[in-house]
Design brief:
Arc Repressor Mutant, subunit A; Jelly Rolls; homodimer; 12 strands; 9 helices; 46% helix; four-stranded antiparallel beta sheet; 2 domains; alpha+beta; DNA-binding
Chain lengths: 226, 226
DNA sequence: TGAACTCTGTGACATTCGTCACAACAGGTT
DNA sequence: AACCTGTTGTGACGAATGTCACAGAGTTCA
């Protein structure tokens, strides 16, 4: 798959013509990362924009005592790095490759040039940030009001929407993240995730085997947790 | 103060010339709201962009059982309503006037025209959304990792930065929001806020009289809670 | 001045959930 | 197989904090 093909799948670039895409693609540099490799450190200045062309990364924040919060898990055609390019602040989050991952990168100045030259990109990016803000607000609500079972349920919905595949009416997440990661997304402990998953299985809402999780009735499931 | 004067104070318009500002100002319609009045309902379609020219509003989400989460308190020169204009989704939050408030409003189509015509606005808006996203991420972290005292401390920092005034080295927040509102911002209960404020006062970190709260040493205070 | 509200302070209690401890299990390597 | 490492399951316990109940202050309005 060519660079341009990858770009076409990215929401903020969909409105552009092939020739414009090609111009941008020319400026992008491919990079590869191994599983577990740090892609961006919290402290460093943000100077690069990244588009994921393969694999997955997790976006985290770390507290002083080393506990981590997972803000998002991003996969193919997602992008990141735009935040500190936009407001000039340092990074607010760490990015780690969750599995072997490939990226296309764009330098700060090329990225800002794009925004100036193609207002459509700026508007599409606004849209994307609005969506993310919305999700953040939802998560703040759920962390504030819900108990751990609810929060874990919502987290599973998020994961299913991001990573799941639909097969004869029910959604399957293959290769579910570790319980520790789910806990760090849901703002709870690993043990509570373990117990809650068992609970959900007892209630016949989900089925697990190995690293796969199947949600029997996704719509009612989502209904129940939001 | 004229419309244009108000607009000049709004971050996303600062880069514009007076004549451009005047053109935009012409399209804006002033509105007034009483204390407690609903400005936007969660369910309604978003069709308007608002700039606050006086007073203050709170941005909230409500759960089914009526508990509320306060996502932000906005004051003069802040704006809202852009989210659902951008991504076309319905409102994600309610907006209520916290005190008598005045606004300038812009219709959906005029707002989008502005973005197309003045790329600088789009870029400044991107910056603003990036800042908000950053704050949301911080709050998600704090809700996930911190205990109630920390969260209340952080909430007080937020309030002080938004509403506080500096007087001979220490910051005073006049007219502190009710404990119930602080609780809804910090994701805790009203009673815990009451006890924690007393605790902070016992530790000689803050002083209260009536509705005013003074933070003796703002820098160390902020340090301690983030 | 009272009366009616709204907000705040505080004790008692119940519950959720994080933490610790350890066992069971899986996958990979020798 | 035996071993190691990383992951998951589960019981026991205690601390943090939400909830309930009510008293005391402070405000508003007649």
């Amino acid at each position: 798959m060519s660079k341009v093909d990858h770009l076409r799948n990215v929401p903020i670039f969909t409105d552009l013509s092939d020739s414009d895409l090609a111009k941008i693609a020319d400026k992008m540099i491919p990079r590869e990362y191994e599983k577990g490799q740090m892609i961006l450190l919290e402290e460093s200045q943000g100077e690069t924009f990244f588009i994921i062309t393969g694999g997955a990364v997790k976006v985290t924040r770390l507290s002083d005592d080393g506990r981590e919060v997972i803000l998002a898990i991003l996969g193919e055609s997602d992008f990141f790095g735009e935040m500190s390019l936009l407001d000039g602040e340092g990074r607010s989050a760490n990015i780690v490759a969750n599995e072997p991952a490939r990226m296309l990168t764009l330098s700060r100045s090329d990225f800002l040039d794009c925004l100036e030259s193609y207002p459509k990109i700026a508007i599409a990016l606004l849209e994307e940030l609005a969506i993310r803000l919305r999700k953040s607000d939802q998560q703040i609500e759920s962390l504030s009001l819900s108990d751990s079972e609810q929060r874990i349920g919502i987290t599973i919905v998020r994961l299913a929407e991001e990573l799941g595949t639909i097969k004869q009416g029910h959604v399957t997440v293959q290769n579910l993240p570790f319980q520790q990661d789910i806990a760090n997304m849901a703002g709870t402990s690993r043990e509570t995730v373990s117990r809650t998953l068992k609970l959900l299985e007892d209630k016949a809402l989900v089925k697990r085997d190995n690293r796969d999780l199947t949600i029997y009735n996704f719509d009612t499931f989502r209904q129940a947790f939001s």
